[in-house]
Amino acid sequence: MARELPLSKSLEVVRLYFEGLPYDDIVEKTGVAKGSVAAIVEVLRAGEFPQFEHVTDMMNGLRDLTVGLHKAGVGITEATPLLILVKKHTKFTWFTCKIRLLALWEDIVYL
Length: 111
Known about the structure:
Blueprint: H1 7-18, H2 23-30, H3 34-45, H4 56-71, H5 76-88, H6 94-109
Helix pairs in contact: 1-2, 1-3, 5-6
């Protein structure tokens, strides 16, 4: 019978997932089996992770944004000032701002 992971290890998996890391990288950093990582993420996405019940609705959007930034080689702390500028100087929706932010970062990264 498999033993249950300590809460601290599950929270580490969640943190790395929110940072935009793929499952294989999470496995490498935590030593948690890939199936367990997938199960933790599944519980999180289903809104059954008690520590994150209040963010379940925002989670997919945040994850998509983080993955996009991660692929562009940009950390969330680096992106925040640019996002604020884009939001202040446009009258577009949040979704449009995310798209513009990612496009701008891609332009910057590939200069």
